[in-house]
Amino acid sequence: MRNNPKVGIFFLGKYTNAIGPPKSMQDLADLLSHDFDVERGNNLKLAKHDGESLVSPHDNRRTSLLFRLKSRLKQSSICYNAVIFWHVVKFNCEVFYFAFKYPSAKIIITHSSLIYSSFFPNPERVIYIRRGNSEIRQFSRLESPSFVKRMANNSFVKYSKIKKVYLVDNGKLPYDYSVIPNFFDANNFDVCFSTTRKIALSYIGTWCERKGASLYLKLVTQVKNNDSFIADVYGVLGNDDLLNDELLNNQDINYRGLVSKPSSYMHVGDIFISFSSLEGLQRSLVESMLTGCIVIGLERPDTLSLVECPGVFIFKNDNNLMENVASVLQALSEMAVEERQNLGLTCRDFASNVFSKSSVLSSWKKVLNA
């Protein structure tokens, strides 16, 4: 019988490899299992690490009508809120059951959807991982399209004693918080070298405005006359039909669809494009660094946390963005192949140290044992 402290890890919604947070919570559970008695929520227990069905570019084109139907259903307030309500209820039932069953166990969640109750035993043992780099607060009616999400969040903020964890430093906030990044095992990421292949400009993630899809399209147009580059997009289509059509009909972009490990298709010295407007710590960014990719990113808390890495280039999202990025890309394309690859390897070394098992586990031990 294990005598290690009990920890429950819970995630709201269906497990999927298409987005980062579920995988990050699964990795966290694996990491903490070395020193704690970890119990996972049912969706993490049932997660299929390698068995999830993937979406090819051909399938996405073939089923574009299905994507449009799903988009319409999501835009239906009644349907969307009904689905969210079901997930919120399941999540709260699991967390409350665990909390009463193990009144001294620590609880880790990553959604602000835990309904407030004065009967919740010892709420100070709950640890909330804030994945968006913003203050935890109440939502107004105009901020969230989901009535259920808004109400759940506004109930959650009443838990004043819950501990907060951010993935990167967010400066001064009206409450105390710890900074613990996600854990990444560098041994799971191979490095591949090529002296003949063109330099890939890679976009990874759901194809949507928040992830910087329209900015990526502008960048591809900006550098299309430079024969040194190819443009690769990995991920599922979003809900914007016009944006989807721009991608699928663009002859200068290779749309790869959803693949299980996009970073495995990248080579040392390739370039990861991070134009997201909001990220906690972009998982695909770190995975690309561990593969030996250089990073071009917008100024955000997570990219700024990497500013000391020579292979990470950060830009303000202003009127000169495309011109400034194109200038750096031109300089990178003119580098000797070995020099550019060495720059990519500095990214791998940097990420290997910052997101290592020993570093992240040590930080979590301090929080969980406090």
Helix and strand topology:
Blueprint lengths: L5 E5 L9 H13 L4 E4 L1 H4 L11 H6 L1 H12 L1 H25 L4 E4 L16 E5 L16 H10 L6 E4 L11 E2 L19 E6 L8 H11 L5 E6 L6 H8 L4 E5 L13 E4 L8 H8 L3 E5 L2 H4 L7 E4 L5 H14 L2 H18 L2 H12 L2
Parallel strand pairs: 1-2, 1-3, 3-4, 4-5, 5-6, 7-8, 7-10, 8-9, 10-11, 11-12
Please provide a written account of the structure:
By secondary structure, the chain is an alpha/beta fold. 39% of the residues lie in helices and 15% in strands. The strands form 2 sheets. The chain has a 6-stranded parallel β-sheet with strand order 2-1-3-4-5-6, with helices on both faces. Strand 8 (229-234), helix 8 (241-248) and strand 9 form a beta-alpha-beta unit. The chain is globular, with a radius of gyration of 21 Å.
Number of strands: 12
Biggest beta-sheet profile:
6 strands, parallel
Secondary structure tally, helices: 13
Radius of gyration: 21 Å
Instruction: Give helix and strand order, one letter per element, not per position.
Output: EHEHHHHEEHEEEHEHEEHEHEHHH
- Strand composition percent: 5-15%
Distance between the termini: 24 Å
Shape verdict: globular
Structural class: alpha/beta
Task: Give the strand order, joined by hyphens, for the main sheet.
Answer: 2-1-3-4-5-6
Regions with pLDDT < 50 over 5+ consecutive residues? 48-54
Q: What's the average pLDDT?
A: 89
What level of helicity do the residues show? 25-40%
